[in-house]
Amino acid sequence: MSGTGFQVFNAAFSAAADFIYAVCLALFLRAFMIEQGHRVQKGIIVFFAYPFISWLCGRLHTPQGTFPLVLILLLTAASKKLGLERPMAFLLGLLYWEAKISGALAVESLYFTVERLLPYQDKSPEAVYCRTIVLLILLLLSHAVLFAAMLYALWHRLRKQRLPLHRLEMCYISLIPTAGILFGQLIAGLLYEVKDGEMLLLYERHPVFLAVVPLLALLFYAGTYLTILFQQGMAALREEQAAYFVEHQQAQAIRARIHEAEQFYSHIQRLKHEMRGHLTNIKGLAKNGEYAALETYVSRIDESIHSFELTLQTGNPVTDVIVNDKRQQCLELEIRFQADFRYPKSGSYDVFDLGIILQNLLQNALEACEKVSEGECFISLTGKQKGRFFLIEVKNSFAEEIVFGQDGLPATTKKTDAPMHGIGLSNVRRTAEKYMGEMDISLEKQIFCITVMVQEML
Q1: Where does residue 267 fall: left (phi above 0), alpha (psi -120 to 50 degrees), or beta otherwise?
Q2: Cβ 201 vs Cβ 209: under 8 Å
Q3: What is the spatial distance between Cα 444 and Cα 402, in angstroms, rounded to a whole number?
Q4: Which of 197, 241, 260, 447 has the highest count of CB atoms within 10 angstroms of its CB?
């Protein structure tokens, strides 16, 4: 092969490398894009942007390390257009380059070792060119395989659980990959050095670096992976703590409702016991012709009875209190409330569990209706037995855009104490699963509908 042919190969090799790395970047980012329908188009944009930025940095003769910096900054700036959260776009760009550089350092040492283990048999220019081409192709393929495997491991880990990417978490997670990138750029600058017209290689001057450099590069990558794993574990622990706190609060609320129901019915029993005395007093006032006093006395009894009245009867004192309490809140907020709920007669369900379901569903519906600024708001509750199954359905108006998280539940829009919100529906689903049931969410126009199914345990 002639020198001209080798130059052509170099150009083709560079283009092939850009093609492989662009595909890896597009696929890596595509998995985290929020909008499902436009992922292909956005992946294509990323694919073509990569070689263009690479060509532009080469054309402008920018300093070493400019390309990754520019790419990461552009990904962060264009995160909204790409359907990525800005912190996630920055982190993915950082992880991409850290994996690319760590893999390159590992393969580079292997390339140097193989080149030294296979001495030249034929030192003619054609033979040297051919040998170099074969080694470079093997180098590119080895790096592509290792790089793809490293990216896949990161992708698989990140997809398992959502990371909370607040400022402190971002600084913590970004620390090791940033150090890995800087280490790789430093080693890349030291690999080749020209002194007195002679090319000096780092691995020739310091053979121990053949093992140290790839080991450190892979340790940086392993540190990045373990940092993500640790942060996910901490996030899961915080979610569990928040869920426990919310469950405890809900349990306290249900116990308070049970206590209210007990008090209510004890008052009813006391009123029944006192009614005989009231009737005696009424007869006495009527007999003596004290009609004005009689009217006042009867009015006071009526007020006393009215204060213990529950408008909606569900068939269970606990659910009576919950449903009537939410109805009263709706009346105060001018929200139309409809209920057709009958507590199941089978007795197979713990009223505590059904109380948690009702409390969460109605509270979420109430909060959604409070955000509706125009039009009539409504909440509709139904609960019916169908064979061995009991279905609870709540429909309500809503105004804000609903975004679903990776768990299939609506993500909370509350900024303060965000970890403490959005847990209610998780508790509802967990309670439904306790009775071999499930929870289903559907949206139609501006109506949010959630159905919970539980079944009798044999």
Answers
A1: alpha
A2: no
A3: 12
A4: 260
227-249 average pLDDT score: 78
Residue 257 contacts residue 183 (beta carbons within 8 Å): no
Cα dihedral angle (345, 338, 307, 304), rounded to 10 degrees? -80
Residues 6+ apart with CB under 8 A from 332: none
Which amino acid makes up residue 35?
E
Specify the higher pLDDT residue, 188 or 215.
215
Which whole-number Å values give the CA distances from 279 to 138, 268, 275, 282, 295, in the listed order? 103, 16, 6, 5, 13
338 three-state secondary structure:
strand
The CB density around residue 182, as the number of other CB atoms within 10 Å, is 14
Q: Quote the CA–CA distance of 65 and 49 in Å, as a whole number.
A: 17
Residues 64/188, Cβ–Cβ less than 8 Å = yes
Query: What is the enclosing helix (H) or strand (E) of 451?
Result: strand 447-455
- Say if CB 436 and CB 457 are below 8 A apart: yes
Whether the Cβ atoms of residue 435 and residue 415 lie closer than 8 Å to each other: no
Characterize the bridge pairing of strands 389-397 and 378-386. antiparallel
Written as one letter, the residue type at 290 is E
pTM: 0.62
Mean pLDDT of the chain: 81
Query: Reduced to 3 states, what is the DSSP secondary structure of residue 254?
Result: helix
What's the N-to-C CA distance of the chain in angstroms?
A: 80
The DSSP annotation for 94-145 comes to HHHHHHHHHHHHHHHHHHHHHHHHS--S--SHHHHHHHHHHHHHHHHHHHHH
Q: What is the pLDDT of residue 422?
A: 47
